[in-house]
Design goal:
By secondary structure, the chain is of the alpha/beta class. The protein has helices spanning 35-48, 60-75, 90-96, 98-103, 117-133, 149-161, 170-192, 208-221, 236-252, 273-284, 307-329, 347-353, 386-402; strands spanning 9-11, 14-16, 23-27, 52-56, 82-86, 106-109, 138-143, 199-204, 225-228, 234-235, 258-259, 263-264, 293-296, 337-341, 356-359, 369-373, 376-381. It has an 8-stranded parallel barrel, surrounded by 5 helices. The structure holds iron/sulfur cluster. Iron/sulfur cluster binds next to loops.
Length: 403
Amino acid sequence: MNRKITHKVNVGNVFVGGGEAVVVQSMTNTDTEDAVATANQILELWRAGSEIVRITVNTPEAAKQVAKIKDILMVKNCDVPVVGDFHYNGHRLLTDFPDCAAALDKYRINPGNVGFGKKRDTQFETMVEKAIEFNKPVRIGVNWGSLDQELVVKLMDENTARPTHQQQEADEIMREAIIQSSLISAKQAEEIGLSADKIVISTKTSRVQDLIKIYIELSKRSNYALHLGLTEAGMGSKGIVATTAALSYLLQNGIGDTIRASLTPRPNESRTTEVQVCREILQTMGLRSFTPQVIACPGCGRTTSTTFQELAEKIQNYLSNSMPIWKEKYKGVEKLNVAVMGCIVNGPGESKHADIGISLPGNGEAPSAPVFIDGQKTHTLRGEKIAEEFQEIVESYIVKRFG
Ligand code: SF4
């Protein structure tokens, strides 16, 4: 896969763009005025694998808490870069609270929500000047739902003035407005003095096809590092599928330097699902390795008992629970492939292709489970303790190969 090489942006201790690994990021949904709750959620997201975390900075009280939030993170040895999300009053908050401006690792500026008329330019300028003063990068984050209406009206008027056969559809103009809004703002930031390697761009919409078209065009027209995300993707499988469809297509085409899944958590659902989804997209696409992969067959009429599902789940949980320790002890362990298969039809074949595989007995098969290591059958497990014995085999393989 050929990745588009963009400008490399340094966000805290993380690089975004320039051909570096695609970075996973997330956003808190706590009230930033509550420093402890926000710091705790950042920690939770970071422990789940988020490499950058964004918080909203919407009020003077929230801005006052930012340095305190960073202090709490430091005490917990958490150095995850924290991004401040500013709308409407960002120019004032960054000016009035220099501690906040200094503590943040990046500022997110939404050109559609900076201000209106003449104020828009001066307020945008102030935010960029603060980024220069504190040596911080910015994300120019354009959003379909808060698009610069003056720009939309201008493009609509230009379209109307064209001969009828040259006029574009309203959707095309909206897409063009999103692209232009981001590029014009990025250019302005450069003219104010911010270098291109301090600028990340995002142009989020909630419709997959629009998002793909916009990012393809944006990638052709500029070399800025790109943050991908489908905005307001939704809840549950709908949000996950839509995000995966959009981001995977773009990533496969070499577009995107950092990703976020904007999922709406179900009541009481952990915010970390969005991190897990991003990591799984990147690992499935072969772009990053975070945790050993478990290949499990879907099961069918040949494996009606729940034994197979229970074993697949036990192995998956065992691998992810062991990873924090293994990562420290066994370098490269995240590249391990484990197969858990339901019967003899594809079990032995698929198991042989994995580093370690087990083929469970399907309906009517002898109650034994052959285990394959590096393509060779090495064990046959029987009885009640198949899961535990298989885990021991996995662990000793890891020690031998990665220890
Ligand atoms: S491996 Fe066996 S149990 Fe699993 S889906 Fe294929 S036929 Fe069904």
